[in-house]
Amino acid sequence: MSQKQYLKNQIPAVFVNLMGMLALALFLLANGSSMHTVLFIFIVWLIILITYLSITYYMRKKYMDTLLDMTEQLQERYLIPEIMTIPDRADDQVFYQIMKMAEKSMLEKIGEIQSERKEYKEYIEQWIHEAKTPITAMKLLCENNRSSFARDILTELEHINQYTEQALYYARSEHTEKDYSVREINLCDVVHSAIADNKYLLRQSNMTITMDELECMVYTDDKWVRFILNQIIGNAVKYRTGQPALHFSMVKSNDKIVLSVSDNGMGIPQSDLPRIFEKGFTGQNGRTGKNSTGIGLYLCRRLCDKLGIGLTAHSENKGTTIALSFQINDFVTGVQG
Amino acid sequence: MKKKILLIEDDFTIQTQLKTLLAGNGYEVFAVTNFSRAIGQIKDFLPHLVILDIKLPGSNGFEICSQIRTFSDIPIVFVTSSNTEMDELNSIMLGGDAFITKPYNTAILLAKIGALLKRAYPASQPEMISWNEAALHLESSMIEYKGQKAELTKNELKILYYLFRNAGKICSRNDIVDFLWDNQLYVDDNALSVNMTRIRDKLEAIGLTGFIKTKHRQGYTL
């Protein structure tokens, strides 16, 4: 509360007081009082007036400052009417009422938006599940009637499936807490199932796949890791060059297991590398008409963060290596011996 | 004897196609069409394994599963399009043996079915498949012809297994590679040629000359 502004607001009161003083002075002088008496009364009056003004100013300021402090400390500031004491002053009460009303409409709006979002998310999830039935049916139809035509369709179906999965995980990545279960899984199995998910895509692009010994147990959610690997494999296919090759390797150290997926594709320019996990970032490769969305790796990073998996990318001129590092939990393995 | 599989799936296309796929892989399949009568049909058909969709009109897979478990221990494979943790947990709690999400990889589905059947009904004699006096021993990875034996690598065994299983039919190179990929052997076209040459050498050594015939531009046949 600024002092100057407060004083300005008090001008009418001061003015009324001065008028009163003037009237009293005239009255006293007319009644034959001495100049000394009048001056004395003036001074006393002024002292009382100034004291009154400063005391009310400081009390008001203290009240307002606590209110301001309380608001600043609140995370949801619009909830301040809930914790402040109901003011005594009539005009303050009006403001309090206004704040209450504003808060209520704010809460209603937030509730509305939240439930709309929830409904939308549920609708998206449901839609994806519905869409998976015809995808499955088409896949079976193609597998039962093998031909080069069916093979091409199967490749496209893998694309569709990847996009729907992306949408599903995007919708879910906000509320992931509810949807993962960490258990002991074999890295080898996840890698194989991720390759199986992209079989026709990899076959069509003539990808050579090699892998080291991957027999290793880690504690994580297999569905999520599979999704992440799918995105990485998808990228390797998308940015492939001449004779594409994909290599899976694993390094085990004391406290972590690092799964690396290396391709020999076009690689990522050094200047783009720090930003590839950002949402919507497509970089130089994206600008050369590769139909990049900037969503895949962003989602990978998001899911990895939630699962506590380290995600790093490495690229030198040609080829990219994406490494996933899983923490080995001493507590679990230690207890189980 | 053919193993019997009961299919409980409401989508008509998936139902018929899955039936074709399973029948093509040597199973006898029966599809339930009236889902409220599923239990009765299980009791009539006496399947070795049940494939169960979770979302069904007028019923649901969990219910059927817990009903089956009251009288039978047959393997139950859940297939569903919703891959939430809740569903997976429920299916395990109610006694499901496997949980596969759509769109499933047919190779994985078949492998899971095969593994479950093997576990539930262990075969007594070692697995062997034969054609024209030549016998392929799957467990020892050997091919035998008139008392002579040759050892096979993993790739070679799988290639021969595929040819034996489709004996008499023409198997395209693409189909063979697909099959190898389904068995987690990521072989490309060149490697297949190398493997075929090696197989032919080994076959010749045990007296099987010209056992695998090449059909120009179509593939191989036994």
Topology:
The complex is a heterodimer of chains A (337) and B (222).
Chain A: H1 3-30, H2 35-73, H3 80-83, H4 90-144, H5 148-172, E1 183-186, H6 187-197, H7 199-204, E2 208-211, E3 217-220, H8 222-238, E4 245-252, E5 256-263, H9 283-287, H10 296-307, E6 310-316, E7 318-327, H11 330-336
Parallel strand pairs in A: 2-4
Antiparallel strand pairs in A: 1-3, 4-5, 5-7, 6-7
Helix pairs in contact in A: 1-2, 4-5, 6-8, 8-10
Chain B: E1 3-8, H1 12-24, E2 27-32, H2 38-45, E3 49-53, E4 55-56, E5 59-60, H3 61-69, E6 76-80, H4 85-93, E7 98-101, H5 106-120, E8 128-131, E9 134-137, E10 142-145, E11 148-151, H6 154-165, H7 173-182, H8 189-205, E12 213-215, E13 219-221
Parallel strand pairs in B: 1-2, 1-3, 3-6, 6-7
Antiparallel strand pairs in B: 4-5, 8-9, 9-10, 10-11, 12-13
Helix pairs in contact in B: 6-8
Written description of the protein model:
The complex is a heterodimer of chains A (337) and B (222). Chain A has 337 residues and is of the alpha+beta class. Chain A has helices at residues 3-30, 35-73, 80-83, 90-144, 148-172, 187-197, 199-204, 222-238, 283-287, 296-307, 330-336; strands at 183-186, 208-211, 217-220, 245-252, 256-263, 310-316, 318-327. In chain A, 62% of the residues lie in helices and 13% in strands. In chain A, strands 2-4-5-7-6 form a five-stranded mixed sheet, covered by helices on one side. Chain A has a two-stranded antiparallel sheet with strand order 1-3. In chain A, strand 6 and strand 7 (318-327) form a beta hairpin. In chain A, helix 4 (90-144) packs antiparallel against helix 5 (148-172) and helix 6 packs across helix 8 (222-238). The longest helix of chain A is centred in the middle third of the chain and has 55 residues, at 90-144. Chain A is elongated and about 125 Å long. Chain B has 222 residues and is an alpha/beta fold. Chain B contains eight helices and 13 strands. In chain B, strands 2-1-3-6-7 form a five-stranded parallel sheet, with helices on both faces. Chain B starts with a strand and ends with a strand. At the A-B interface, helix 4, helix 5, helix 6 and strand 2 of A face helix 1, helix 4, helix 5 and helix 7 of B.
